[in-house]
Write a structure and sequence with these properties.
Shape: globular
Order of helices and strands: HHHH
Strand content: under 5%
Largest sheet: none
Radius of gyration: 18 Å
Distance between the termini: 35 Å
Length: 130
């Protein structure tokens, strides 16, 4: 592989990671601001529920976007971009899996425990970095 090809693959991967993380970071900043404003009020309201609903919409939008991107990258036979999109999709689907495990009371099942532990390890990476 040539250096320019490796550079374009790295740029494509970095772009996908940036596109996936930017809306989530923006929502996190907004949530911190909203919670700070809610603490200052006498009646706190349902700030957490509103943030959770926004998170669901952002996740569904990102899932649909990266699903389309995955299909396009598979059709163009771009392996690195396909794997990156697939990994991002897997991370974005974890909250829905967690919700399903709790909704159907499957917390003790092996699949739910493995996904929970994997997502916990993923989040621990960010705690160490901060």
């Amino acid at each position: 592989m040539t250096t320019s090809k490796l550079g374009s693959i790295a740029a494509a991967i970095a772009l996908r990671i940036l596109l996936a993380s930017a809306p989530l970071v923006a929502l996190s900043v907004y949530a911190q601001y909203a919670f700070e404003q809610a603490r200052a009020q006498e009646h706190h309201g349902d700030t957490g529920l509103g943030i959770a609903i926004l998170l669901a919409f952002v996740c569904v939008g990102l899932i649909l976007s990266f699903l389309v991107d995955l299909i396009v990258q598979i059709a163009r036979k771009r392996v690195a971009a396909s794997i990156t999109s697939l990994l991002i999709l897997a991370v974005l689907c974890v909250p829905f899996g967690w919700f399903a495990c709790n909704w159907f009371d499957l917390r003790g099942s092996m699949a739910c425990e493995q996904v929970g532990h994997a997502f916990g390890a993923f989040l621990a990476l960010f705690e160490k970095a901060a």
